[in-house]
Amino acid sequence: MASRFNNLASSGDGSSQVLEDAAPIGCKTLHIGETEAVARPHILFIIDELVEMGGAERSLFRMARLLPRELFRCSILTFKINPEAPDLKDVSCPLYVWPVKKTYGWSGIKVAARIRRFIREENVSIVHTFFETSDLWAGPIARLSGCPVWVSSRRDLGILRSFKHRVGYKFLGGLSDAVLAVSPQVRDFCIREDRLSPVKVRTLFNGIEMERISRSSSRAAMRQQMGIAENVPVITTVGNIRRVKGIDVFVRAAAVVCRKHPQALFLIVGRRSEEEYCRELEATIQAQGLHSNFRLLGSSEDVFSILRMSDVFCLPSRSEGFSNALLEAMACRLPCVATDVGGNGEVLQHGDTGLLVASEDWNDLARRLLFLLDDPALATEMGLRGEELIRSQFTADIMMKNLVNVYQELLEARSH
């Protein structure tokens, strides 16, 4: 096990990663070197797992990496990890992996005691939780351990919640000092479903690091690398392949598009999260005679380069909190077609920065894709307006400024 973690990657500042045993509870701790500075408030991010790297996981890494070091220090705690995940190279603070088999079992008791001890010994000022186990189990532990501030992030419309989660959020959700919703729609959901005070729930939009786009490959270079001719229309979607992402709707729309553009190429960038669903998709692609029109690329470390060489971005999701992939596509000047779910309509303004369609409506999705492919000048204008919107409202700098303001406000309130 240890050999899988050793020299996994280096952090942003070149510090090394070393695996150590956490002997008291028989778990593993992955450390990424950082000079301790007790005077700075210590932020402990807690997330259920780091296995599939989706929007929440990448946003967490972005927060930890961009948090002003002169103001805060931070650590990350998770209960399950995929040590091969390429995104771990972006982790720039101590990362602790403490496995929990059952939160109400013996392993849960031991990890709860370790969380309590860590908060006290490491002088943790803020615990910031992500997802159900962290929100409903680790967050209350932090509160009972005397951590001054507990912040919870909510990033979806409850699509992963079980009955016990729904009950737990109603009874325990109000214990946190603040809830950061990724979109106004998610904020409304939390207020309504979790019975939270509107004063406590704030909207914190995702943010894009624009400089990373400028470092990605050009359209011509990426097309040459992937063996795609310049005149081939490329429509791309990004997201781990799950039914909720609506890739089957994307495939049905593609069949219509290919009647007019038989050379069109449809790219799916994302991990095969649901194998049965992936097999269904592949069978549908074959049955529609679209085998040569589709490429399932899997996870990619070079998403920006793929987006930059595409012609249109499509987000056919059945549910979204606030899509990182949509922001990234717009930041890459891509005209976008997205379903009108969750926070998509907050950033994609229909007819201006892109086009919205109803969820499940593959005919309208195909019609909108064709509209953009057949009017390159308009598509370019939409892409440029989309990039302008991202630069003005949805950059990582703006996100971090707002997050720091929340942290400082909550700490200030606790000091009085």
How would you sum up this structure, described in words?
- The chain has 416 residues and is an alpha/beta fold.
- Strands 1-2-5-4-3-6-7-8-9 form a nine-stranded mixed beta sheet, with helices on both faces.
- The relative contact order is 0.11.
- It has helices spanning 2-5, 55-66, 106-121, 132-144, 163-172, 184-193, 210-214, 219-226, 247-260, 275-287, 303-308, 324-331, 344-347, 362-373, 376-393, 396-415; strands at residues 17-22, 27-32, 42-47, 73-78, 95-97, 124-130, 149-154, 178-181, 201-203, 234-238, 265-269, 294-298, 312-315, 336-339, 355-357.
- It has 16 helices and 15 strands.
- The protein has two domains: 2-207 and 396-415, Rossmann fold (3-Layer(aba) Sandwich); 210-393, Glycogen Phosphorylase B (Rossmann fold), CATH 3.40.50.2000.
- Helix 9 runs parallel beside helix 10 (275-287) and helix 9 crosses helix 14 (362-373).
Summary, kept brief:
The chain has 16 helices and 15 strands. With 416 residues, it is an alpha/beta fold.
First-last Cα distance: 47 Å
pLDDT under 50 segments (min length 5)? 1-29, 31-37
Q: Would you give the CATH topology of the largest domain?
A: Rossmann fold
Total helical elements: 16
Spatial ordering of strands, largest sheet:
1-2-5-4-3-6-7-8-9
Name the descriptors.
single chain; 416 residues; alpha/beta; Rossmann fold; 2 domains; 9-stranded mixed β-sheet; 6-stranded parallel β-sheet; 15 strands; 42% helix; 18% strand; elongated; disordered N terminus
